[in-house]
Amino acid sequence: MSAGPFAFHEFFAGGGMARLGLGAAWDCLFANDFDPLKAATYRANFGDGDMACGDVWKLEAGDLPGRPVLAWASSPCQDLSLAGRRGGLEGGRSSAFWGFYRLIEAMQAQDRAPPVLVIENVVGLLTSSGGADFTALGAALARLGYRFGALEVDAAQWLPQSRPRVFVIATTLEDTPGGGGTMSPRVQAAYARLPRALRPAWINWSLAAPARRNLALADMLEPDDRVTWFDEARTERLLALMAPLHRRRLEAAGAGGRAVGALYRRVRVEKGVKVQRAEVRFDGLAGCLRTPAGGSSRQVVVVVEGGQVRARLLTGREGARLMGLPEDYVLPKGSTAALKVLGDGVAVPVVRALAEQILEPLLGGQRQAAA
Predict the structure, then answer these.
(1) Cβ proximity of 335 and 291 under 8 Å
(2) What digits encode the pLDDT tens for the residues 91-121?
(3) Residue 127 region, left (φ>0) first, then alpha (ψ -120 to 50), else beta?
(4) N or C: more exposed end of the chain, with fewer CB within 10 A?
(5) Quick check: 6 and 26 in contact, CB under 8 A?
(6) Domains and CATH numbers, the chain
(7) 297 and 345 Cβ atoms separated by less than 8 Å
């Protein structure tokens, strides 16, 4: 690969979606992920040279080459997600963030820490442990001399998938581009909970909204004759799980022509009892892609047409399109494995927007200084 002007390290890299979003102006010096499937997917798409598969806690600063200008970290979100155990940053998987932090601290002692960090996670990062986790994160960054701020961004602005995420951008550089944008309510509340002594380290990053999205879920799907549909009995069992509100949505969708919706099975508490429900949406968006593990269900495509309801599982390639990946992106074999990689990923167009509007202007003329 030819060297780009901006050198970076990618932690918790998954299938390399942040790398794709950063684009050709960026040169990856090092990537890391704990999961062998994700590491294999990364290598299948970017070659063997950059990916080190293993626990971030077992890495040392000497394992990290060069002098990057950016470290990107999409640390595990299971303990912060509304779908998880909400153990906070001290929870089992999300504590991997502190393994990353330890490496940045060690690189700083060697005078080669990146001047910009991006920490991506679910929006639960802003509220977990009553907001104490986000405050602890900000305080830790400030101890290393980084100023920081957070953006809440939904991939639905670019792609037909509801995928809100928080991006914490931290920098030791003095000049910051833009700023002064309107904070989302959750970011505003997280800022308000910061101790007064920490607020001077805050940067109010802003990101302009893209042009209006012109793609819908239906545009991402394979032709009907190339996918496997549920049989009638399985479809009826699924529809029987719908609460009255979602049954009415289904009936209303069938009043027009062809309607394409996305459905998840969820556990709800009704009258004190846990009940499995099928919940469907017909707003042109898929639900947030998840890894099909830990109790999460696979997303289902529902098509209502001519009085008939058909249903099937979302395929891995369709999931890749919903993440903004190119058609030649190499996925693991099997939709379950593919969705495991995709469900933990970051939407490619969101990363590109952050790079164009914030990261590249912030870094300005800085060039790769790697050995």
Answers:
(1) no
(2) 554 478 888 999 999 999 999 999 999 999 9
(3) alpha
(4) C
(5) yes
(6) 6-213+340-363 (3.40.50.150), 223-314 (no CATH)
(7) no
